[in-house]
């Protein structure tokens, strides 16, 4: 028997509504400061959502009235996917 985790309470508490290619989705948005080897720095926006949501590189995500493009998709194998974003 497989154990299946429900992420609904997590997203209800910590998630924000966003628009992915015109459809509403709920996920956790993070625009934390990023630093690469002490030489290049800036924001590293990411959006974490359930892996059941269909998404592709190049898709458009609107969060907090800012438009982003999906540049990397990282499924972690637990049912969550992190989208690495680039502000448009």
Overview of the molecule:
- With 88 residues, the chain is mainly beta.
- The chain has a domain at 1-50.
- The protein has 1 helix and 8 strands.
- The protein has one helix at residues 8-14, and strands at residues 16-20, 23-30, 33-36, 40-43, 46-50, 60-63, 66-75, 80-87.
- It has a 6-stranded antiparallel β-barrel with strand order 1-2-5-8-7-6.
- Strand 1 (16-20) and strand 2 form a beta hairpin.
- The model has no long low-confidence stretch (mean pLDDT 88).
List the helices and strands and how they pair.
Elements: H1 8-14, E1 16-20, E2 23-30, E3 33-36, E4 40-43, E5 46-50, E6 60-63, E7 66-75, E8 80-87
Largest sheet: 6 strands, antiparallel, barrel
Structural class: mainly beta
Helicity, as a percent range: under 10%
- What value does the average pLDDT take? 88
Spatial ordering of strands, largest sheet: 1-2-5-8-7-6
Rg is 14 Å
User: What's the β-strand tally?
Assistant: 8
Terminal CA distance: 45 Å
